[in-house]
Amino acid sequence: MTGKAKKSVASALPALPAVLVTEAVRAALKEDLGRAGDITSIATIPDSDGAEAVIAARKPGTLAGLALAETAFTEVDPEVIFKASKRDGDRLAAGAVIARVSGPGRAVLAAERVALNYLCHLSGIATETARLVALVAHTKARVCCTRKTTPGLRAFEKYAVRCGGGWNHRFGLDDAILIKDNHIAVAGGVGAAILRARAFAGHLVKIEVEVDDLDQLGEAIAAKADVVLLDNMRPEMLRKAVGLVGGSARIEASGGTTLETIAEVAETGVDYISSGWITHSAPSLDLGLDIEKPRRRAKKK
User: Fold this and answer.
1) Is 231 noted as a catalytic residue in this protein?
2) 65: how many CB neighbours lie within 10 A of its CB?
3) Which CATH superfamily includes the segment(s) 9-126+283-296?
4) Could you say which of 210, 226, 252, 271 is catalytic?
5) Per-residue pLDDT of the chain (301 residues; tens, 9 = 90+)
């Protein structure tokens, strides 16, 4: 790489708020442990037995979700030790060791599935995001997620997108105004909707409007939208739209973007490309936990 080195994804990631992590993990553990706990481990493993395990990648990908995995183990038993050898955002080769876990055997196994559920799901999102980001690296376009997330997991799924080198769109209905086709239909037109939004919004709230054709785009430009979302437009129309905007607003392309089409969309000159499937349909990354050796725990004095 020539010139100034790019900052790594891992070093640029914001930390997940600990309170969100703990709250989500406790709910997941409560769901899994039920009313009696891990009765299989209780029945088969003496309380005195410890375990040492390794979490590793079975397929290549991009890592996300370490904080959730570690919290799953330590919430079950604070005596469990979780030592990560990778960081969120790291690219993983097949067989790469992600972390080592040691502690009471019952606790390690009771937390295993919750930890892996988070790691596999979020790493899958990060992996698919990284694939899209690589395909548009030769352009200025940034890959963004949407609000098409799993209820209760939005903060973590959007974090996983960042782990893959992508960018976040709005987190909810309250942090930006996005005027879509149904808003326009009720409001009576693109221009009218933007003018009302402008009168309502504070100075820090951006206004984005979704348009389906170049006529609507002209209205959005005239009404001075901050961002225009070009919905389901083919590349040739996207190029015309970019020319019409002429830098007066940020441009987002959305609708049906795939691994096969994203490069062509990015090459039209848009600023952002949003994708819903990287959060709602990304396959989990195959990661696994294997016991390396059982051990007898020292008795407490």
Assistant:
1) yes
2) 30
3) Quinolinate phosphoribosyl transferase, N-terminal domain (3.90.1170.20)
4) 210
5) 333 434 457 667 878 999 999 999 999 999 999 999 999 999 999 999 999 999 999 999 999 999 999 999 999 999 999 999 999 999 999 999 999 999 999 999 999 999 999 999 999 999 999 999 999 999 999 999 999 999 999 999 999 999 999 999 999 999 999 999 999 999 999 999 999 999 999 999 999 999 999 999 999 999 999 999 999 999 999 999 999 999 999 999 999 889 999 999 999 999 999 999 999 999 999 999 999 976 666 655 5
299 catalytically annotated: no
pTM of the model: 0.93
Distances (CA, A) of 145 to 22, 208, 283: 24, 15, 15
Asked if 148 is an active-site residue, the reply is yes
Q: Choose, from 26, 59, 113, 250, the residue flagged as catalytic.
A: 113
Give whole-number Cα distances, 186 to 114, 198, 207, in Å.
44, 17, 17
Which DSSP symbol is given to 272? E
Of 226, 231, 252, 271, which residue is the catalytic one?
A: 231
Which residue of the set 180, 224, 295, 296 is catalytic?
180
Residue tagged 């080769």 (tokens): 93
**Residue 77 among the catalytic residues:** no
Q: Is 180 a catalytic residue?
A: yes
Which residue among 26, 58, 147, 148 is the active-site one? 148
Every domain of the chain with CATH number 3.20.20.70 lies at: 134-280
Instruction: Say which CATH superfamily domain 134-280 falls into.
Output: Aldolase class I (3.20.20.70)
Q: Whole-angstrom distance between the N-terminal and C-terminal Cα of the chain? A: 57
